[in-house]
Design a protein that fits this description.
By secondary structure, this protein is α/β, with parallel strands linked by helices. It is 61% helix and 7% strand. Strands 3-4-6-8 form a four-stranded mixed beta sheet, covered by helices on one side. It is elongated. The mean pLDDT is 91.
Amino acid sequence: MIKESSIFKNIKTDAPASLIVFFVALPLCLGIALASGAPLFSGIIAGIVGGIVVGAISGSTLGVSGPAAGLTVIVLSAIQTLNSFETFLLAVVIAGVFQIILGVARAGVIGYYFPSSVIKGMLTAIGIIIILKQIPHAFGYDHDYEGDLNFTQADGENTFTELIAMTDAITPGAVVVAAISMGLLILWDVYLTKKHKIFTILQGPLVVVAFGIFFQMLAHQYFPELALDPVHLVTVPVSDDIPSFIGQFSMPDFSQLLNQEVYIVAFTIAVVASLETLLCVEATDKLDPAKNVTPTNRELIAQGIGNMTSGLIGGLPVTQVIVRSSANIQSGGKTKLSAILHGFLLLLCVWIIPNILNLIPLAVLASILILVGYKLAKPSMFIEIYKLGWAQFIPFMITIIGIVLTDLLTGIGFGLIVAFFIIIRNSYRNSHFLHKEDTEGHTKIKMTLAEEVTFLNKGAILKELKRIPSGATVTIDATQSQSIDYDVMEIIENFKDTSAQKNINVEFKTKVKKEEILF
């Protein structure tokens, strides 16, 4: 209890951070719901649940959960396949049950096996995508939905052609708002925060959101040519009273419990949502200045409970989301309180002040997100990874290119494949150490095997044994090996059996017992 209450010690930093995360999350929740073919309010529900429910249960210090862009295609297809949003909600509830089972079964350990180069590549790629996707919104071209991270877009364009298309539909008011907002954010970040503590407490993103609302009100009154149409503003569903607000929540159709399609959709959501969560957990932990380590099994359980809750009250599936998490970290969040508070802010603001929220220009939020993207994809990151060598730099770059040109999971897959081949190559090369002596025409060779010798080392060892000249004396030293794969032992035994034919004298030293050989 004492440990949990300690999260309130940093409320001075967590509260402002939660406001910024709220402003970032709000349009993303709405945009993802729109792209998913679901009611707009279902995205808000998922954001609320991701903040309050998942935030409270999760062991992640700075991770923020909510509806994820990576699930939009799955959700859109599932709603069409199941012919009912209420039936889809049942699939979300069951997906939550599957995730809890994964957590209890300790499947979260998968998260620890993503290479650092791939995770850093993912973070950098997300930063690049955020910048590229938000530039059109900054210019008032809002055809693509907020939160889209895929290369191919729902509006028929892709990440690059969208930048060309926007040049034919630039909105002057949005450009003015975005330019002033970006200027204020840079001034705040580079200069003002270093001058006085008040500028750390009253953060730049809050100021530019207030400016955006004020600009819209002022433009309507005095400069109608610069006033932004509703399509360029946040669009929160407005309720006239409490009953109509409550009426936006919906329940699953439990009569479909025996529908096989529901379980197929549920399993798909559970697997994809869990993978995205584990990836984001690893990425968030790397960004965390305090270097906290999130318990991944607990995170899967928290996400499972979150999805059960979201499905039960009419929300989209939730995952931990890197855009919101990185915004939280960059805004000075210290504990999980910032994620929880952002959930309460979503609930209260869409209930009490939706009309004010609907005055926020998307161009303002684009400016905030572009700065978030830049901090994720700083040029210094490329230099840092390059200095670590090609074994780190190649998977890093392949991951970036893959994610930018496809989607998150596909790009990660490309990065993992490349990293895997580099591991195999290194394993192939590092299977043994060879010492060779030529004395008076006689060759003595000592081959010292590595501590762990697997079937991946088979090719390198076989190649080395074939190169041993006739008449040599060979000592194969496996006394330092803790385990030797059966395939390798078979090669060594075959070499011993045929060595007499080549006049090769072989001595094999090992402390690995036969029963310890890896079959």
